[in-house]
Amino acid sequence: MSLNTSSIPLPGWIEIGVIPVLNILMALFFAGLIMLAIGVNPLQAVGIMINGAFGYDEAVGYTLYYTTNFIFTGLAVAVAFHASLFNIGGEGQAYIGGLGVGLVFLLLDDFLPAVLLIPIGIMAAGLFGAAWAFIPAWLQAYRGSHIVITTIMFNFIAAAIMVYLLVNVLIKPGQMSPESRLFDESAWLPFMHEFLGWFGVEITRTPLNLSLFFALTCCLFVWIYIWRTRWGYELRTAGHSEDAARYAGIRPRTVIVSAMCLSGALAGFVAVNEIMGVHHRLLLNFTAGYGFTGIAVSLMGRNHPVGIIMASLLFGVLYQGGAELAFEIPKITREMVVAIQGLIILFSGALALMLRPWVVRLYLRFKSVEDVVPA
Amino acid sequence: MDAFSGFFAILDATLRVSTPLILAAMAGLFSERSGIVDISLEGKMLASAFAAAAVAAVTGSAWLALAIGILVGVALALVHGFACITHRGNQVVSGLAINILASGLTVVLGIAWFSQGGQTPSLGSDARFMPLSLPLTDAAREIPVIGQFYGDVISGHNLLVYVSWLVVFGTWWVVYRTRFGLRLRAVGENPLAVDTAGLSVSGLRYSAVAICGALSGIAGTYLSTAQNAAFVREMTAGQGYIALAALIFGKWRPLPAMSACLMFGFLDAVAIRLQGVVLPVIGEVPVQAIQALPYVLTVVLLAGFIGRATAPKAVGTPFLKER
Rounded to two decimals, what is the model's pTM? Predict the structure, then answer.
């Protein structure tokens, strides 16, 4: 019997619960095969990873520090996805966001107090990220060039600009490595161990800083923006059907540009965590692929802030647990996590619907077709 | 005479660095002309480069390395096809997944197998494609300029460089002069018409992505066993994306795409030479500016400021056969 399974509706808990989990399990299954191929016991590896990510409070700090980055880039990709735009340029936008923070702090950190510096730094990260997304967005909206290709190109252009600026302009004089000088301490976002220390709570020193709270605030903001405001409604409408949107009096071009700018700003906030929170100076390659991981996070989290928080946490575990794994088992390197990330993008993204026909058939075993498909 | 030899050295380097771009651009051409977006040229090249270098290191045979390089390229292309054609998944997402997977897996396997920090052992000259001296090179050197051009620029490359030229010609011939090519172009413009004519859209697209995989495999093999003597992690360094840019720059046509590859290769060769050199009027040219130029030019072209690049119409949209 040939059955067109794609038109058969499934209950919500299967669509957004069972199928995504099955997809991730598929990805993890293949990751297990890779580990077997290089002679590592996958179950032992999972044990080390979980312990490495949650086993002691330093590990938890690192896990949440990675999570923070992934929340920002995941949200960035999700906002664009809702407008049916594929922002592959989160990496470049985060990088240029860092440039914004760097420029502002190098100019102002001697004059202003922390109360002013920190909001200005956050705004600079967002504005620079947004500006870097604005150009591809404008080109897509008004010149018809494809956003995927332009954002890819802009990642490379951003990298070239940053190398040039750090090697030739912003480098601290008399130093070999291409890094700016350290910012004044008033521009540092407090670490979590410092922050909790003010309340008398002692935790181990880790890179985790207050930007985690900012990331969670961004999740709330994105949820409100997309599902509870007029702009979000316009964004989703234009994403579903440009023609319908135009008919309803929405200007799709404006939506493209505003969605991409919001997306770019969110990606730029990676610099809040990395530059303002951890490194306290501008340096090369601080984005370390987080922009690309955001795509996996957004796909896994089904473009919803709650899903994105969960997916970010999973990737935080993978990154921190992966580091521990590389430390414990010499045969495994941190790149194992990159490979797992690729598998997750493949199974939760490109092959997201591969298992659905099977799930539908299984579901129909318990329900008759007449119950499911209204006549 | 010296001015010439400097210039010829740049041209010689241009051909060397353009070869992987040309092969990858032709690979992308087959895929995109059939309607499948391929941003995974980078990943396929990287995986093939690793596989070829690993095989060459273990067996010492460059030819076996080439065969495995092609096989790995085709295998990844079929994964892409499985996701995009059979399951109608998002083509950009699938391509990205392959790139990231290749970037991680090559290092993981490289360290597990060879324990050299992700590199493969260096290859001896019989396990590589070595420079060939074309016939009459020495005799032609007697002729000024032209003979020198022949000897310095045209001759003295490895086999795969010459193969890449044949591939361009072959691509042109297949795409514009054969029945398969006509169908390939049709399926990228209007798959419904092809389906109505009783041809299999999926079959055509699968063969196109398989050819794409094979050519990316040759490009990857070139990187690790001809241009270099080992696999180094991330050795593609964005060349897959540059090839994609060149394909767009050449408006999805073989010869213009090859010219774009040669132009980008030339920029690369010049950039290396200009490092730290102070030019009379401009002053010191930042190398990064020249390196970013291919990307900037592609953006400007796509924006329609210098001519229009129109993609195959059906590119990126999965085909759903009506029942």
Answer: 0.91
